[in-house]
Amino acid sequence: MKVAMIGTGYVGLVSGACFADFGHRVVCVDKDESKISRLLDGEIPIFEPGLDALVADNVKAGRLSFTTDLAEGMKDADAVFIAVGTPSRRGDGHADLSYVYAATEEIAALIDKYTVVVTKSTVPVGTGAEVEAIIQKVRDGFTPGEHFSVASNPEFLREGAAIDDFKRPDRVVCGVEDDRAKEVLTELYRPLFLNETPILFTQRVTSELIKYAANAFLATKITFINEMADLCEKVGADVQAVARGIGLDKRIGSKFLNAGPGYGGSCFPKDTLALVRTAQQHGAPVRIVESVVEANDTRKKSMAGRVKAAVGGDLEGKTVAVLGLAFKPNTDDMRDSPSLDIIPALIGEGASVQAHDPESMNEARKHFGDTITYCDGPYETLEGADVLVIVTEWDEFRALDLARVKEALSAPVIVDLRNIYRPDDMAEKGWQYHSIGR
Ligand code: UDX
């Protein structure tokens, strides 16, 4: 099969490289010339474990290429994937579909044989129908199922584990309106059929909703355990034991029950908000998700208060060491990261912040400019600080030499927002240790 992948962001690049690795011929297309020229030079613009090798191998094998020329990318393509950004629109929280619709118009003008146009970006319910209408407007006389089809194929990739998630997914969801599109998608995902991965074919609109429902459900699960954590703190219970106690019930499941500073990232905050708006628009409000959005926002904003309390109620003139800036480990992504709420709040309370993250220091500079001190490693970050705050649970922070940490800090105080150490162990070692829900 031949595939054109429009958009070389996170989803487009990972999906393109993985389809190529399945044996298809893939052309990744992006308007950003500097991005394409970097990719042609073998440089990967994002940090994702294993992606550089996967891209290099498939480029070498002649299955994967990059271009800014959509016509070149679409030549002979059986399927064109739209994997451009769908950010939250400023002001109303709806997904901004201008990039999707602009790409659709360009694709429509270039279709020269039956092609399946697939939305891979997370798009609101009903976008597939809109994409179909745009193509028919641009190409008078075009009939869906005959000259083209529009399908939905949402991604469920986690940053940091995206390649594995693509190649060994729990399931693949394809929303199609005709058998021809189903045949093309079946062929594209054939290697997964051999793996016995469940491939779910649904109506297009259902597939679009599955993506939002999945992310909203996971965000709800996290928010639920975060609120349980607050309650645990009040009554003296242990949230990790609560999570284990409920998670062993197979109907609940043990994953996504880690209490923390609130979820962030490029998907959950944006998708929960977009689902709330879509549901309101259709007169079927999703009140649970509305509460989740609000609770998570409030939670992220409240985290700096824990640091303030840990240093005795006043941050004025204090130095805070922050370890972890990315929204989760194994990524350089800081979109909607809790650190973006915590650090400005600490500074607002009069603290100086020195920070380190293994991968997102360049990103951090864009957000914080010269308002914080950037440190090369964890131990430098601690030098002369009054308190250590763990914001992201990178493995290397789990393995810190705590005796050395104690020596570097002016007082033995840790606010661990990811529960990476054991409270009994920390107490024994003489730490004032504040964690979440324990
Ligand atoms: C998520 C979905 O998992 C993926 O299926 C979807 O396609 C895109 O959004 P991602 O944003 O990469 O993936 O990160 P994920 O690992 O899901 O974590 C999201 C946020 O939730 C992070 O801020 C993380 O720290 C937080 N989280 C996750 C918790 O606080 N507790 C948990 O138990 C799990």
Key features?
Rossmann fold, NAD binding, 438 residues, EC 1.1.1.22, six-stranded parallel sheet, binds uridine-5'-diphosphate-xylopyranose, UDP-glucose 6-dehydrogenase activity, 19 helices, UDP-glucose 6-dehydrogenase, 46% helix, elongated, alpha/beta, UDPglc_DH_bac
Bound small molecules, deduplicated: uridine-5'-diphosphate-xylopyranose
Helix content range of the residues, please? Answer: 40-55%
Task: Sketch the major β-sheet.
Answer: 6 strands, parallel
Structural class: alpha/beta
**How do the strands of the widest beta sheet line up side by side?**
3-2-1-4-5-6
CATH superfamily of the largest domain: NAD(P)-binding Rossmann-like Domain
Overall mean pLDDT score? 96
Name of the CATH architecture of the largest domain: 3-Layer(aba) Sandwich
Query: Whole-Å distance between the termini?
Result: 53 Å
Fraction of residues in β-strands: 5-15%
Compute the number of strand runs: 14
